[in-house]
Every structure is written in structure tokens, then in C-alpha cells.
Design goal:
The protein is an all-alpha fold. It has 19 helices and 2 strands. It has a two-stranded antiparallel sheet with strand order 1-2.
């Protein structure tokens, strides 16, 4: 393992995060939110100089980096970066202290969006709302970049589902190819966010709500936690814009790229698009049968499958939905190259194709059947990878439910907290009957990080020899 390269990458991240913290500190000063300016400055002074000192004391590594080094950086990113990002949340963490602040930071960075801040019913300060939005965007870019590069190179969770035209394993150092996909992802996500924000402003939405809504849509998160409990302020047009943004965020990098290249027919016929639309329709019908009006059912379905949970209509009736229907959409999730959580549409497409081939082979037992995914013929190794992922995901859900139950949560709350954390769906966690204790916060925090590492990536990371090589 190239430890020097990993340390330098993390140091560069610290410097960038320091700049973002200072930007929020300036906003806090400008808006006279002086109580929050100091924590931003303190976090910036910890992250920036520390990263700069490490860069000055280390030389550029001569040894080539490999995908395993990328997995190490991804793990450290989700675990260590929230430590610095948590400091601005500390003044509102209440009795939870640094554990609650760290939970808040991880929740935002993983685009889960659940909040444990002690607000007493007051709205979030503008500087902290901006910080939550920045963390959601940073987490979105990180999640897509890691999936399209590290997970694609290591073939984790099913070979082929993370591949795209933006990344191929370079002949030289692995990290040499990463900046390109970061630029592509950043440009696409920022462009869609600006378009959504502009449309919301034109529709008469307040700037604060337009910012949180646009970022929440593309990140499939909850910048403003209250958005899960409040209907869109400007009615139907407001909800329609947010819904369109959620669909774009759920479909992710591949389909947005196809639309950007004006390959509309290819975008519509993409396997993940063809899987998303029926999933939304089926979940919508189930919600309608459970008692929601038809339009409200479709809006709830879009929001839930995206794992965002933003209310696209009056959320009063949402509490009547049965628990199994609440967790089903978030378990499905979105595109493999999006910030949405869940099992991912691509894996469900691969499994459904394999099941259909099994039925074909019942009548032609000696035949050799193959199937394709985005033009690539998939092998038995693909199916084995998907099944291993599915087993790992189920085991993680069960373990989370058991641990949270032992901590003292009721069964329903344990299911909501465990699956909500693992699928990065903050609105599921917010429906627990009681606030999370600090042991429960630690457990859900681990679940959120595990969800971003796509579960089975944690297996090599937990092996001490992985870090020693």
C-alpha cells in the first residue's frame, strides 16, 4: 500500500475543506451569526494548516498507486473528514456533545440528512444551512467518484455495474485518473443544481428554500431536515421541479451524461431508467392502496425511491403507511452512479435478467444462456458478485436491527434506524418515536458509513494486512 500517497491525498482534502469552512465563517459574520463563526474558523485552522504541514514535510510518492489505495482513501474520507466538518455543529449538539456533532457531520456528508441538533423548533442558522448544503454536495461528488473509480476498479458488489466511459484503470498511477471524474461529476451536479435552484426562484420559492431544495434533489438527501415534514411552499409547480430534480439525482451520472450529449433515446432506454420508472409506479400503486391519493402516492414514491424523503405534498398522511411499505422503496434505491442509497437499480436489473434466463433454461436445459447490461455480456462471476453483495446487505440490516434493539429501541424504531442509516435515508430515521441516544447514534453512524462503502467493501478494510501491505 502506498501510505505516502494516501496521506498526501487526505492532506489536500483538508486544505480544500478548510477553504469551505472559511467561506461559511464569512457568511456567519456577514449575517451577524457570531456564535457560529468561531467554530467554523476553529475547524478551518485545524484542517488547513495540518494538511499544509503534511504536504510540506512529505515528498511526492514515486511508487505507483493501485485501486486498493483508492479504497483506503475512500474509507478514511468517510471516517476522518467528518471529524473536522463536525466542529461547526458542536454549539447546537446539546448533551450529545461531539458524538452528536460527528453524527450530524456524517449524516450530511453521506447525504443521509437526518439531524440530531437541538434547535427547539427554530430554523437552522443560515451559515449552518449552507454548511449542510456544502457537505451534501461534497458527499455527492465523493460517492459518485468512489463508485465510478474505486468500486469499478475493484469490481465490488457485482462486476460492471459501476463502470462508465469516464474511468478506465490507467497504466500508471491509479490516482492519476481520479481528477477527470471529479471534474465531470462536479460540473454535472453543479449544473443541475443551478438549473433547479433557478427554476425554484422563478417559481417564487424563497432563496433559502430554493438552495436547500435544489441541493437535496441532486444529492437525494435532506439539506433542511424539516423538508421531510413540510409540503412545498409554492404548491404544484414547486413539487414538480423538486420531483424532476429527484429523478435526475436518482438516475445519476450515466443518464445525466446521456442527456447532456442529447442522446435522449439512449437515456430513456438505459436499463436503470427502465427499472426506475416501473419501480416508482409500483410503489405508487402500493401507497395508493394504503390510503394515499394517487398524485400524492406518486410524489411519495419518487421521494422514497430516491432515498431523499423530501415531502412533495402534504405529509400528514405519510404516518399511516405500514412499515414494510416505508422501507421497501429505500431498499431499492437509485442508480449505481448516484448519491442515492439502497441496493441499487443496476443490481436488481442484473438479477431480474438472470432469473428470466433460468426460466428459459427450464425448457432448454442443454443451452448456454447469456445476457447483457449496457452492451456488455455478463458472466456467472457477475451474478456471484451481486449475490455476495445482497447477502452482505441483508446481514448488515439484520445486525443493525439486533444491535439497536439491544440498545433499547423498539423493534419498529430499530428497523427504521438500521435501514435508514444503511440506505442513507434520513427521513426513515426521523420517524423513530424517540430521539436517538448516543449509543444508537454511534450505531447509525457506522451504518451510514457502511452504506456509502457499499457494505462488502468493508471486508478487506477490516483486515489488518490490507493496511500493512
Amino acid at each position: 500500500m502506498n501510505h505516502l500517497a494516501i496521506i498526501r491525498i487526505m492532506s489536500i482534502l483538508g486544505i480544500w475543506i478548510s477553504g469551505l469552512l472559511l467561506m461559511c465563517a464569512l457568511l456567519a459574520v456577514g449575517l451577524n451569526e457570531t456564535d457560529y463563526a468561531l467554530p467554523f474558523v476553529l475547524a478551518a485552522l485545524l484542517a488547513g494548516p495540518l494538511g499544509g504541514i503534511v504536504l510540506l514535510l512529505t515528498n511526492k510518492p514515486q511508487e505507483k498507486t493501485r485501486p486498493q489505495d483508492g479504497l483506503a482513501v475512500a474509507t478514511l474520507f468517510w471516517v476522518l473528514v467528518p471529524l473536522f466538518c463536525a466542529i461547526p455543529f458542536y454549539p447546537l449538539a446539546g448533551e450529545g456533545g461531539m458524538i452528536a456533532a460527528y453524527y450530524e457531520s456524517v449524516s450530511c456528508l453521506t447525504t443521509t440528512g437526518h439531524s440530531v441538533l437541538n434547535l427547539d423548533g427554530a430554523p437552522l442558522p443560515a451559515s449552518l444551512l449552507l454548511w449542510r448544503a456544502i457537505l451534501h454536495m461534497l458527499g455527492t461528488v465523493a460517492a459518485i467518484t468512489i463508485a465510478a473509480s474505486v468500486l469499478a476498479a475493484l469490481n465490488l458488489g457485482g462486476p460492471g455495474i459501476h463502470r462508465s466511459r469516464f474511468f478506465t484503470i490507467p497504466e500508471g498511477s491509479f490516482f492519476d485518473a481520479i481528477p477527470r471524474i471529479i471534474r465531470v461529476t462536479l460540473v454535472m451536479t453543479c449544473t443541475v443544481t443551478v438549473v433547479l435552484g433557478s427554476l425554484l426562484l422563478i417559481a417564487g420559492v424563497a432563496p433559502r428554500e430554493a438552495l436547500s431544495g435544489a441541493v437535496s434533489a441532486i444529492s437525494t438527501g435532506l439539506v433542511d431536515p424539516n423538508a421531510a415534514h413540510l409540503a412545498p411552499s409554492q404548491g404544484g409547480i414547486h413539487a414538480f421541479i423538486l420531483g424532476a430534480g429527484l429523478i435526475a439525482g436518482t438516475l445519476g451520472l450515466v443518464v445525466i451524461d446521456q442527456i447532456g450529449q442529447r442522446k435522449f433515446r439512449q437515456a430513456i432506454s438505459d436499463p436503470e431508467t427502465l427499472a426506475l420508472l416501473p419501480a416508482i409506479a409500483i410503489i405508487g400503486v402500493l401507497a395508493f392502496l394504503a390510503g394515499l391519493p394517487i398524485i400524492q402516492s406518486l410524489g411519495w414514491s419518487v421521494s422514497s425511491v430516491s432515498t431523499s424523503g423530501m415531502a412533495l405534498s402534504d405529509p400528514v398522511r405519510f404516518s399511516r403507511l405500514p412499515l414494510v411499505l416505508v422501507v421497501l422503496p429505500v431498499l431499492i434505491g437509485g442508480s449505481a452512479l448516484s448519491a442515492a442509497g439502497g441496493i441499487k437499480l443496476a443490481r436488481l436489473v442484473v438479477l431480474s435478467k438472470r432469473v428470466s434466463l433460468e426460466f428459459v433454461q427450464l425448457g432448454y436445459r442443454s443451452s448456454v444462456q447469456t445476457f447483457t447490461f449496457r452492451g456488455r455480456t455478463q458472466s456467472e462471476r457477475t451474478i456471484m458478485g451481486v449475490w455476495v453483495y445482497m447477502v452482505g446487505y441483508i446481514m448488515a440490516c439484520v445486525a443493525g436491527i439486533l444491535i439497536l434493539s439491544l440498545i433499547g429501541l423498539s423493534f419498529d424504531d430499530s428497523v427504521r434506524a438500521a435501514i435508514g442509516g444503511l440506505t442513507n435515508s434520513g427521513h426513515i430515521i426521523s420517524e423513530t418515536s424517540d430521539s436517538l441516544s448516543w449509543p444508537a447514534q454511534i450505531c447509525v453512524t457506522l451504518g451510514m458509513i457502511l452504506g456509502r462503502l457499499e457494505v462488502i467493501a468493508i471486508i478487506p478494510v477490516l483486515n489488518p494486512s490490507f493496511w500493512a501491505r
